Amino acid sequence: MSKLVAFAAIQGGYKVVSQVEGELEKALQTYDASTKIGFPNTAYYLPVIYSLTGMKCETLEDLKKPMAFARGLLPPHVKGANHLPYLGPLLDAGMAGIFAYEVKEALRILREPDFYVVGEDPDIEAGKIWVGPADDTILRKRGVEFVDGSAPGFAAIVGAAPDAATAKMIVEDYQKKSLYIFCAANHNGKTVIEQCLEAGMQVGWSTRIVPFGPDISSAVFALGFANRAAMAFGGVEPGDYRKILMYNKNRIFAFVNALGDVGTEWAVAAAGAVNWGFPTLADTDIPEILPTGICTYEHVVANVPHTEICQKSVEVRGLKINITEIDIPCAFGPAFEGERVRGGDLYCQMGGGKTQCTELVKMAEMSEIEDGKVIIVGKDIGDMKEGETLPLGIFIQIAGREFQTDFEPIMERQIHHLINYIQGIMHIGQRDISWVRVSKAAIEKGFTLKDIGVVLHAKFHQDFKKIVDKVQVTLYTNKEDVDKLTAWARSEYKVRDERVDKMTDEDVDTFYSCTLCQSFAPSHVCTVSPERTGLCGAYNWMDCKASFEINPTGPNQPVLKGKVLDPKRGRFEGVDEFIKKASKGAVETYNFYSMVHAPMTTCGCCECIAAMLPSCNGIMTVGRDYSGDTPSGMKFTTLAGVMGGGASSPGFVGHSKFNVTQKKFILGDGGLLRMVWMPKMLKDELYDKINIRGKEMGVENFADMIADETVGITEEDILPFLQEKGHPALTMEPLIG
Question: Which parts of the sequence belong to the CO dehydrogenase/acetyl-CoA synthase complex beta subunit C-terminal domain (predicted)?
Fold first, then answer.
């Protein structure tokens, strides 16, 4: 603990307490001791003193007791040698200063009853800028917002910015994040509130820019408001100081921005705020208190640039922002998720086999990215003509104190439904097989690619505020950039998939559901196990487990597998119970390891679709990125249309690429050795893994036995090849029997 910090705060405590003792003595000489004092229109007396000590200050005489209490809190002065770097003495000095400031404000109201405006908003025309302490009507109206989360917290700004433009930038930044801005104190006679007025801004409770007062003592009104919220909405009893302070630390997410030179009177106020768990961030070079302890993270942070002070404050306080309004030209919401963009409505598209469309989320360091920044690299939609296509790479970087790399695929999967929330935009698939279709109606409203970034930034903050502090989005439309991102993304997907390689379904008692795609396929319920990854390819068992930890009420719910009803085909009593309920009775049962007998339901987001080839006594599979004909007589798009609506279709099943080489892949039908055809691009991608799995099943170089489109695209074409290679499927028991 810096000796300079301790000196400033403790010296400030002595200075403020002595000053207010003098003011109180003067008031007692001027007025009768029984003179009524207090803040107007409130039942909470002087709320900081009342809430923390239970003292009801109603007269001048009553003020002697809290001042004596404040004097008793003052710690010994800092020693020149053997300074003990403890936070405790600073907290005591700070609390003493806060008590004294509240008494000081009560004395001001006694002396100048018209100094503060009564009501929500100042009367600028009459020169009445300062609103002073909130009355109980304002508390009830505004305080509930801090309880229900519609106001995530408040920034207490003391002092003034270098100029009006900077003040406007800082205050608007907090407004955009739905925070209240409580303003007090001046720096060299200038206040942030006066700067806001100079910049043409409206101030008052109605705009969440609250002008408490011109002096540092009026900052106590912010703490009083917070404590009254704890009593009014948290049910904390007056005098239970520990619960009051803990309520504020855990429920009222506030912090102090000190703009200007921090003297001893500001220092003691900052030390006092730490008792509430409210840190201070300054734009000047002051001694810092960086270790955690009382506050969630750091206590005092110095030299914060004005362009960064908002985001840095949010980060240090551990505040999670809930952005409720999204600034895009199209309507936005879950009601549009199931909307289709059909041929006649289509303006342009990205991905879907016509171009490459890839999505990747990566964790970033706080210093690496700028929150809310959306970068377009290449052409935007405004540069396209109707009917054109573009490649698209969506690269999202997320930073957060509580963020983990395990959460990357969970966040990545959200891209699907969040883009679908935009009216007139349709999104299908995920990872490197995504497809975005943009309607003419959306273009007419002014939709651009940047709007995708705006939506993802806002909703990641809103839906994952526990783990997200910063989001930056980059959208690539140049082919070389998209190809580069795709190569990197595929290596990341590989690493993620390999995390569950060694796990088996027998190792766990719990599987996880995924119902993200029910907007398109209402009866589809994907169940993810260690050996049955999500058919979209984005979620494996560990991903779902992490997703449930992030969002316990989300689409990935734990499913107790219960009694094993069929170990060969993979049917479980607990899963049956779950899917019957989740599909609203449309599906009563399915098997994890069979495509012939009651296979798992399939939606249009699957990476691959497998189909029986009866003449070859085997199966084929085709990936979304292959647009040619297949031995089943249907292209991928036709297959997806036939059985991708959430049905369980015997003889067909959707699955991920990774699932092909998992040990339980259609094990109930003979396993991977049934595979007789797949597109060359898919076979090349899985070549080594296919050979490893084939060898485990007793067949060397199995990938070379699988036909592809270079051999043929009908069963008649490929059968001679299979016979020549001695494919094991030809000698297995009949697939249908």
Answer: 493-736
Q: Are 396 and 456 in contact (CB under 8 A)?
A: yes
At residue 405, the pLDDT reads 87
Q: Are the C-beta atoms of residues 279 and 295 closer than 8 Å to each other? A: yes
Query: Under CATH, what is the fold of the domain 124-317?
Result: Rossmann fold (3.40.50)
Residue 330 and residue 347 in contact, taking contact as beta carbons nearer than 8 Å? no
CATH class given for the domain over 510-731: alpha beta
Which residue stretches of the chain have pLDDT < 50?
Answer: 1
Angstrom distances, CA of residue 493 to CA of 298, 482, 567: 36, 16, 29
Distance CA 244, CA 48 (A): 10
59-84: pLDDT as tens digits: 999 999 999 999 999 998 876 655 55
Among 715, 617, 596, residue whose Cα is nearest residue 674: 617
pLDDT digits (tens, 9 = 90+) for 18-66: 999 999 999 999 999 999 999 998 888 999 999 999 999 999 999 999 9
Class of the domain covering 3-111: mainly alpha
Q: Where are the domains of the chain?
A: 3-111, 124-317, 334-498, 510-731
Q: Tell me if residue 737 falls in helix, strand or coil.
A: coil
Length of the chain: 737
Query: Residue 504: left if φ>0, alpha if ψ -120 to 50, beta else—which one?
Result: beta
Q: In angstroms, rounded to a whole number, what is the distance separating the alpha carbons of residues 612 and 499?
A: 30
CA atoms within 13 A on the CB side of 260: 22
Q: What are residue 157's phi and psi, to 5 degrees?
A: -100, 125
pLDDT value of position 144: 66
CATH dotted code for 334-498: 3.30.1650.10
- The pLDDT score that the predictor gives to residue 1 is 45
Q: Within 13 Å and on the Cβ side, how many CA atoms surround 335?
A: 5
Residue 548's pLDDT is what? 85
Q: Cα(468)–Cα(403) distance, rounded to whole angstroms?
A: 7
